[in-house]
Amino acid sequence: MTQWNIEDITPALRDSPPDRRNQVWRNWYDRLVSQLDDSDYRFMNYGYLGLESPKLEPSDEANRIFIELYQVTLGDTSLTDKDVLDISSGLGGGAYWISRVCQPSSLVGMDFSPEVVRLCNKWYGGQHNLRFVVGDAEALPFPDNSFDVIYNVEASHCYANYDVFLREVFRVLKAGGVFCWSDFQSRTSMEKIETDFENCGFEIVSLDDITDGVLRSLDSVHKAISEGKLDGKQIIWGNDTESLQDVIQEFAGGGRSYHCCNLSKKTSIGSKI
Q1: How many C-beta atoms surround the C-beta of residue 202 within 10 A?
Q2: Number of CB atoms found within 10 A of residue 103's CB
Q3: In a structure prediction context, what are the per-residue pLDDT tens digits for the chain, which is 273 residues long?
């Protein structure tokens, strides 16, 4: 059985001032990543399970729920021959799948942990159009107008300064480019997030509540762990069904909702944030 030797991060986040939260996340994250070198774990998201089952390669089926979250986040956005950035790319499973299947010209996976970037370059070094770099989501290490498409999956709730993050995305995205975002938030915070998108100069192309699909994913993982049908090395939960059940209850009870959004960078507007 897999059991990660890390503590619950919630108390530390709650007791930290806003300007220290990024460091709290970084310390916790590095402790987790240091245990993963020999793990099969490649995705760090809650997953999504649609009512229909998009076709995947047989080798990707084991990671279906995690890949489907990337699919629903990207929506109809074409990545073919595009320069793409994955902000907070985690263990790189999503970036690796996208680099193989969606045929971008280049895909940069960026994460703030040097250790996880080292692992990703080790694991995926043979993929010609994919590389991983260290960087901060609130100070992106790229020139203005660098990317055609940027995506960010289940990570922005960790950032201390969400508005700074959005300004940075807007800066490095090319005019007419697309930003694909997904994350969980409290239901009451989504109105402010929509306003932040628009104030930064983005046009909202689509905005969808995908909570039901995320709940289906979490329920399926809980059932598979409980029945001994899922290897704990492949998922963040290990074999901890109690913590997983707490997350399920928070979504089912309305404390959290999960949204995905596609945004377009207007060609001639300044930031208002």
Answers
A1: 25
A2: 14
A3: 344 455 556 566 666 776 777 777 777 777 777 776 666 778 889 999 999 888 999 999 989 999 999 999 999 999 999 999 999 999 999 999 999 999 999 999 999 989 899 999 999 999 999 999 999 999 999 999 999 999 999 999 888 889 999 999 999 999 999 999 999 988 778 888 999 999 999 999 999 999 999 999 999 988 888 887 776 555 666 666 787 888 899 899 988 899 999 999 987 544 444
Q: Decide if 189 contacts 163 (C-beta within 8 A).
A: no
- For the whole model, what pTM was predicted? 0.89
d(CA 115, CA 263): 31
CA distance 39 to 116: 13
What b/e sequence results for 91-102 when a residue is b if at least 16 CB atoms lie within 10 Å of its CB, and e otherwise?
Answer: bbbbbbbbbbeb
Look at phi and psi of residue 243 and say left if phi exceeds 0, alpha if psi is from -120 to 50, else beta: alpha
